[in-house]
């Protein structure tokens, strides 16, 4: 691990600021997304999602919970964790305000901060569902109370606010809450943990913001205390809470996916700050195992509805795939920390896959609706949800304006609002582009030299990425370009029009090419990634998609969609002898207008199915076949044109 | 529908006594199981299961709930539906006492009846979790309170007691409870339903026992009231409660499997008693749809853990297949009613499949442990559960001595104790054998002639069934023999050694052959069913088992089991070019000793799997293959020799 300097400037809009690592993160002040796929979504978050969230949280009384006096406590509305939704919204508002400050948003954050401060107890405790008159006692239900989980999201909101605007009252509230946690659960406190991890990465990040060692120590203490079955027995088992075995002894993520991933993110923070390479190695091993055996093609994690949990290895059914949106956000949190720590491009690949195929799938075109879960196979047409209807619980319905458990909104919003920070990072004298999109990068190298890059691209519709040096003050430095694993050895590169080698073991093993030279302003690097549709085959141990194939195009997973179930997707069989092709019926002009609509076609047959009274028989079935051409669309586009059926994995002929 | 006489004798041990139908049921007094597969299990229920259930229900306070005085009500232990477990146990005890009366069991039933009577309110209401001091009000939580559900099981216990021993105090308690239900929810009562159906078939059967029309009317009224979304919204949707659409308008079973099946059983009862052929037709259509698209190879129903529910059509993953034991019992309840109403042998096939592959699978060899759910694929070795440990909730663990939700014990026990009643039925002048096993049948034809049959067979290990006429008083009559659908056209038949035709459309369409003649005592019919292992292929729309094959032998579904996961079942590929064979290494003598252990072998390969960091790639994987012979065992035998992995569906080479 390369030791990189701790940035003197605590602001600058970095979500995560480790004191050491292979890469130094850049912040919202240094990287701006200026156009394209993610710019459109950032606009949506700022113009629709945040206000939508605020309106609903006011309407449902979730913000009002902070205002209530003692007498009315019995009427508090919503589940135990609604405070955390308000905090996540404030975190998202803070990133958005860092990206594009407006006085109105600034005022809103300040108002909400005043609410929080007013609800905080004298000793720093802050939770609207416990400890008040007529309420259950503080920390009386560690499994399900979500108290420390909510505190964690408060801390993360304060970190975002501090890193974008500087410390203010929100940081004060957060520190008082963190101090209370340290006093209650410190080394002499009870050896217990919160059922839902989140306080761990939050305390670690607050320690980085405040330089308060005891927050980091407390995070480390919570990590050590987990895995000893201190939580009461539950039908989901201790694994649900990652409380079944100590974190260093596990070999894979298991149980509730979001819990496991938040915890792992906190473990990486602690490992990096304390130089605990054993712990870091344990998390890397667990993540590797999870990626190899417990992850959907989309990058989605968690296959089970019942407990929102990972299944056993290779239990990845497309039907009712859970693939919770928040697990996607948590995967990005974890992968980002590992990317900074190790520099392995693989983690940027994971982030890319999850962004395009989980996060972008969840977010509705109006910015006001979300998939809570992201199934890979929809057999009956999705329902239509009225704009004003809250969905009870969570689960597997269509994109909906609101859920009783509405974490997907805040999580999606805080990630997308801060997304430019995930686009680039630096070493001492290199700027690495980790995600591709129209962007401006301006930063200083370790020795203080200012450098700037301008990226223009139609990625991911096209594989061409043009990088222009906009600022340099002489001397050699480098521009690193991620070579996505899906690109194989197909990438090509020119610098000022001159082809450069993009091959060899060095490049292949790290998934990156670095152009080093004495750049001049105006120098131009062009990277071509081989974006053309390709067939993808599953590991044979994934029974649920045996003998099926998926089609991917660059980082985009494609799917077949049938509006109003006009095409029976259960009858489709794809002929893999004919390569998939970009859909010819879309003209270049049309494509330009609606870049994200780009489609792919595959050669297929429709197989007749015979009605049978019993679906098991003495011969492998297979009726008459009619040739057809099947049009595929990006998976993240599905379910946007009305009730639809959908499948990603397509049986082969 | 043939109208058959209502049996004058209300006792005789018949679980269901419709006043008309294609077949007239026989009771425990007319059919005795004398040996073989089910005799062993009947012995287990009588010698172990019933006492085991009583001990646990006493230990956990479930029986004690009926004893409690007002003050202690707040401390009532267990879930809202524990009363129903005690009732189901009493129902099972009653059938067992009818099968094999003992003074001790009789006393135990009387003692428990005294308990129930003591807890019953003056107006007939009886439930230990509602309506008492400090408890929630009666019927204040129709969705989850299970009050009418519990009452239903009380009624069914009283029906069993009355039909085996004659009416006693238990019938009085039940009638008082039923009267209270009719008074509370009668035509002028609220248009509501209980979240868990069960009161419907119970009221219908109590009406048959007591000739009280108003019980039947109340059952019909509850049926009419369901499907109008009178229950409050819930995240599982109204379909969970079968309250989404009126029962006549549905096209398939859906939602919670046990609820849907209990309700359908009640609907058949009402349809038959009121001559409502439309209603009967609707249930037949829904059951047909469910069998064709929502049923596992084992006959198990309900694929989802989260809500114990049916999935969409063809969503039948083997991994974590739920296939709840109680849904199996409920399927038998429904299929039996439809078999009596229509005479279609298909329903006896369903019963056979469920008995051998769900009910027999659930029941542990000690009679003191049960599978709550019956998965079709176990990837990680089953856990070992201590004898004294209750499993929280329900769900997918190993066979366990007790569950917080322990309905599998009572349901399995009441079905197996009364199982001889499902072995045979009659028309006016025919006795039909519906299930094969060593048995004695003695009954009277409609005109009063006594007839008797003795059945000897090693079924299902062998396909030979010998039926000897033990009693006849002259004149022609018939013996009907079910031809299971799995036997295809392979059955052969002799009467007194003379081959008889077993073919033709008539036979094929009804799944039955009838030998009619002027029998003499000693006449012998021998049926040979082609029991040899066969490959079974799934409908291609069941994605989860695409390109896989299962092996069945007679009514038995087979599986591959790996003790301590010594054989990696994920690597097995079966060569279907080589027919499966009975396992040669088991000698005839061994087989005689342990008939249920009979195994089958298939030709297979073990495929090498390469470790991969990401389980999706650009080529269909498939490593080096090592030929092997794979031994299969009956599915119902799995998990009995220690921690094991298992799979029914095996990928093809």
Written account of the structure:
With 653 residues, chain A is of the alpha+beta class. The first copy, chain A, has three domains: 24-422, Glycosyltransferase; 424-528; 533-651, no CATH class. Helices cover 33% and strands 18% of the residues of chain A. The first copy, chain A, has 14 helices and 25 strands. Chain A has helices at residues 37-59, 82-99, 103-119, 147-165, 169-185, 199-210, 213-225, 257-274, 277-293, 325-342, 345-362, 407-417, 504-510, 588-593; strands spanning 24-25, 31-33, 377-378, 390-391, 402-403, 424-426, 430-433, 439-444, 450-457, 464-471, 477-482, 492-495, 498-500, 512-517, 524-528, 533-538, 548-553, 556-563, 572-574, 581-582, 600-607, 616-617, 625-634, 644-647, 650-651. In chain A, strands 3, 16, 17, 18, 19, 20, 21, 23, 24 and 25 form a ten-stranded antiparallel beta sheet that branches. Chain A has a seven-stranded antiparallel beta sheet with strand order 2-8-9-10-15-12-13, with no helix packed on it. In chain A, strands 1-6-7-11-14 form a five-stranded mixed beta sheet. The first copy, chain A, is globular and about 75 Å long. Chain A starts with 23 loop residues before the first strand and ends with a strand. At the A-B interface, helix 9, strand 16 and strand 22 of A face helix 9, strand 16 and strand 22 of B.
């Amino acid at each position: 691990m390369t030791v990189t300097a701790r940035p003197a400037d605590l602001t600058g809009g970095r979500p995560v600021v480790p004191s050491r690592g292979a890469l130094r993160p850049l912040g919202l002040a240094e990287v701006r997304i200026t156009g394209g796929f993610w710019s459109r979504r950032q606009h949506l978050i700022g113009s629709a999602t945040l206000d939508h969230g605020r309106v609903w949280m006011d309407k449902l009384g979730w913000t009002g919970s902070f205002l209530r006096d003692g007498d009315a406590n019995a009427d508090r509305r919503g589940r135990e964790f609604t405070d955390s939704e308000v905090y996540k919204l404030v975190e998202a508002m803070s990133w958005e305000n860092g990206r594009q400050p407006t006085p109105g948003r600034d005022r809103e954050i300040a108002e909400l901060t005043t609410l929080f401060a007013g609800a905080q107890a004298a000793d720093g405790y802050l939770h609207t569902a416990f400890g008040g008159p007529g309420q259950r006692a503080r920390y009386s239900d560690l499994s399900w109370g979500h108290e420390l989980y909510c505190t964690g999201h408060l801390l993360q909101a304060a970190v975002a606010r501090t890193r974008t605007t500087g410390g203010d009252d929100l940081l004060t509230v957060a520190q008082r809450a963190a101090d209370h946690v340290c006093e209650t659960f410190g080394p002499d406190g009870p050896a217990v943990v919160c059922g839902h991890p989140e306080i761990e990465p939050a305390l670690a990040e607050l320690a980085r913001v405040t330089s308060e060692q005891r927050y980091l120590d407390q995070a480390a203490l919570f990590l050590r205390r987990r895995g000893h079955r201190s939580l009461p027995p539950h039908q989901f088992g201790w694994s649900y809470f990652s409380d079944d075995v100590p974190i260093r002894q596990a070999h894979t993520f298991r149980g509730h996916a979001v819990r496991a991933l938040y915890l792992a993110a906190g473990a990486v923070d602690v490992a990096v700050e304390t130089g605990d390479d054993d712990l870091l190695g344990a998390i890397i091993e667990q993540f590797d195992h999870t990626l190899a055996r417990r992850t959907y093609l989309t990058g989605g994690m968690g296959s089970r509805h019942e407990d929102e949990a990972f299944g056993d290895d290779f239990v990845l059914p497309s039907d009712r795939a859970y693939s919770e949106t928040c697990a996607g956000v948590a995967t990005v949190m974890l992968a980002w920390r590992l990317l900074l720590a190790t520099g392995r491009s693989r983690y940027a690949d994971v982030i890319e896959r999850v962004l395009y195929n989980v996060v972008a799938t969840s977010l509705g075109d109006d910015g006001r609706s979300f998939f809570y879960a992201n199934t890979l196979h929809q057999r009956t047409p999705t329902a239509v949800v009225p704009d004003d209807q809250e969905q009870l619980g969570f689960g597997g319905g269509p994109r909906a304006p609101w859920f009783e458990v509405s974490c997907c909104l805040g999580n999606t919003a805080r990630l997308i609002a801060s997304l430019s920070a995930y686009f680039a990072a630096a070493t001492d004298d290199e700027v690495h582009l980790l995600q591709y999109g129209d962007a401006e990068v301006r930063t200083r190298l370790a020795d203080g030299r200012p450098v700037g890059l301008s990226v223009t691209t139609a990625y991911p519709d096209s594989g061409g990425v043009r990088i222009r040096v906009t600022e340099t003050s002489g001397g050699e430095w480098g521009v690193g370009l991620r070579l996505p694993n899906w690109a194989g050895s197909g990438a090509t590169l020119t610098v000022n029009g001159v082809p450069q080698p993009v091959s060899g073991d060095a490049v292949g093993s790290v998934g990156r090419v670095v152009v080093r030279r004495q750049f001049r302003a105006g120098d131009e690097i062009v990277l071509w990634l081989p974006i053309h549709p390709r067939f993808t085959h599953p590991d044979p141990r994934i029974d649920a998609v045996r003998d099926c194939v998926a089609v991917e195009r660059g980082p985009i997973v494609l799917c077949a969609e049938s509006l109003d179930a006009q095409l029976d997707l259960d009858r489709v069989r794809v002929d893999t002898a004919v390569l998939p092709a970009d859909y010819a019926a879309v003209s270049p002009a049309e494509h330009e207008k609606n870049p994200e609509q780009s489609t792919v076609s595959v050669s297929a047959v429709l197989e007749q199915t015979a009605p049978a009274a019993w679906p098991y028989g003495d011969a492998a079935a297979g009726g008459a076949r009619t040739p057809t051409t099947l049009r595929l669309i990006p998976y993240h586009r599905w379910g946007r044109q009305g009730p639809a059926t959908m499948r990603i994995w397509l049986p082969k002929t």
